[in-house]
Amino acid sequence: MIKINSQVWLPFVTAIALSVVAAYYSIIGLAQIFPGSFWPVVIMGSILEIAKLVTISWLYNNWSFAGKLLKTYFSIAVFLLMTITSMGIFGYLSKAHIDSTIVSGANTVQLRNIEAQEKIAKERLTYLLQRAGDPATATNRIDRQIQETQAEIKRITTEKLPLLAEENKLTAEIGPIKYVAELFFDKADPSFIDKAVRSVIITIIIVFDPLAILLLIAAQKTFKQTRKKKIITVEDGEEKIIEVDDDDDIVIQYDMEDINEVIPKSKITKLDGGSF
Predict the structure, then answer these.
(1) What confidence tens digit (pLDDT) does each residue in 202-247 have?
(2) Can you point out the beta strands (E) in the chain?
(3) CA separation for the pair 274, 42 (Å, rounded)
(4) Has residue 178 been placed in a domain?
(5) How confident is the model at residue 73 (pLDDT cuts 50, 70, 90)?
(6) Residues 180, 199 contacting (CB under 8 angstroms)
(7) Residues 222 and 252 in one domain
C-alpha cells in the first residue's frame, strides 16, 4: 500500500479546487456570452474542462512515448482550452462589475434628476421671495406660490434622502476598487474605475487556470517520486542504490557456479602486495 503524504495530496487537492472554481466561473461566463443556448454551453464547457485536465495528465505521463504530432496537437489544444477558460472567467467577472455599475448608474440618474428639480424649485422660491419683499409686486397670489414652492421643496427633499442613502451605500461598495484605481489611473478620466477593474480581472485570469494546471503537474511529479523505491545492489565489489517504480518487476539472478567457485590461491594477494 502506497502512503501518500501532504507533498502529494496538498498540491493535488489545491489544483482540483482551483480547476473546479475556474471551471464554474468559465462555464457560467460562457453561458452568459451565449444566453440563447445556456444548457448546451454548460454541458460543452464542463466536458471541455474535464478533457483539459485529462489531456494534461496523459501528456505529462506519456510525453516520452507520444508521437510528435500528438504532443503538438495536445499542447495546442490545452493552450486553447486555457484561453477559453480565461475568456469565460473574464466574461463572468465583467458581468458582475457591469451589474453593479448599472444599479449605481440608475440610482445616480434618479438622484441627479431630483437635484435638478430641487435646484429649479429653490431658484423659483428665491424669485418669489424677492417679489414678495417688494411692495409694488407683493400680492396674496405670490404668498400662495411661495407656500406651494416650499411644500414642493420639502417633497423633493423627502424623495432625495433614500437616493442619497443608496448612493452612499454604492460608493462604499466600490470604495476599494476606487482607491486601487486612483493609484494607477488619473481620476480625471471618467472610465478610470473600469480600467482598474479590467486590470484586476486580467491579473486574476493570468494566474488562475495556469496555476491549477501547473499544480496538477507538480502533484503528479511528486507522486511519481514517492512511488520509487531504493534497491541496494552489489556490482564489482561496490554497493549501488537503484531507484525503481513500484510497478517495475525486478528479478535478480545468481549464477550458482559463480557462487560455488573456489578462488584460486594465485589470485589471493598478500598485504605487502605479493602473491602466495
Answers:
(1) 998 888 888 999 999 998 888 887 776 555 555 555 555 555 555 5
(2) 228-235, 238-245
(3) 85
(4) yes
(5) very high
(6) no
(7) no
- Domain region containing 241: 229-267
Q: Quick check: 22 and 208 in contact, CB under 8 A?
A: yes
Domain count, the chain: 2
Distance in angstroms (rounded) separating the CA atoms of residues 112 and 24 = 39
Which residue is listed with cell 483539459?
A: 52
Query: Taking the model in full, what pTM does it have?
Result: 0.63
Residues 34 and 142 in one domain: yes
- Dist. CA 276–CA 223, nearest whole Å: 55
47 membership: H or E segment, kind and range: helix 38-61
Residue 233 neighbours by CB under 8 Å, 6+ apart: 239, 240, 241, 242, 252
Residues 184 and 256 in one domain: no
Mapping DSSP onto H, E and C, the string for 134-189 reads CCCCCCHHHHHHHHHHHHHHHHHHHHHHHHHHHHHHHHHHCHHHHHHHHHHCCCCC
Residues 155-182: tens digit of each pLDDT:
999 999 888 888 888 777 777 777 878 8
